[in-house]
Amino acid sequence: MTVACDVSKLSDLQNLVDKTLEAFGRIDGLVNNAGVNFVQPFLQTGEREWDHIMDVDLKGSFFLTQYCARQMVHQEPKGGSIVQIASVHTLASLPGAGPYDAAKRGMIGYSKAVAVELAKDNVRVNVLSPGLCATEIWKDIVAAAPSEAECLKFWNANIPSERLIAPDEIAQACIFLLSDMSSAITGANLLADCGMTSQLISKEPYVAKGGTVKSSMKSMKTGNRLTRTATRADYE
Fold first, then answer.
1. Catalytic residue among 67, 100, 206, 235
2. Which of 47, 127, 131, 126 is nearest to 94 (CA)?
3. Active site residue 100
4. Is 25 within the bounds of a domain?
5. Would you say the pTM of this structure is higher than 0.90?
6. Is residue 232 part of a domain?
7. Range of the domain at 87
């Protein structure tokens, strides 16, 4: 079943829930995966950009969670599992991502509150935070680089597993959180990032540019900066 929905409009969200109930009679699981992003310097970010991200990423997920949870706590047997798709931006950031970071971290905040509130009704709420995935967003990142190979080399230096995440891997994590295999897990933020947020600094100084750990530590002692935001200049 497919239902067209603008998640920034509450009437569309309610229609989505109504159509689902008409077709299936109950709601056992929800994956909030709708999201938008842009990169813009903080000092140039306007109200329009802020509102757009908040409407889709935060307000949309909040109210769809609410509408589905209302059904979950009243159906028999009561209960269900809700998964919020956030991002590694819930733990770390990049310049120009302020509104996106605020929305994704807000998602964690309300999800923990809802998880605590609805636990007595057998409703679990968890957050899944992916790293860099091979999706349309990756195509946009590649478009800013001289080549996909150079882009991969740069980003792999920041990812311990040195690879992109396949969408199917995120889907499998969602299935786990939706299923009874995770029956004791609620209010959690599960990272699926190939180790990205566990790595202190980029491997780029001694891998991508052919240096050594010794030379990189010397560079650190002299005050040189080792990690940077990926821009076209970084690839040149």
1. 100
2. 131
3. yes
4. yes
5. no
6. no
7. 10-136+163-199
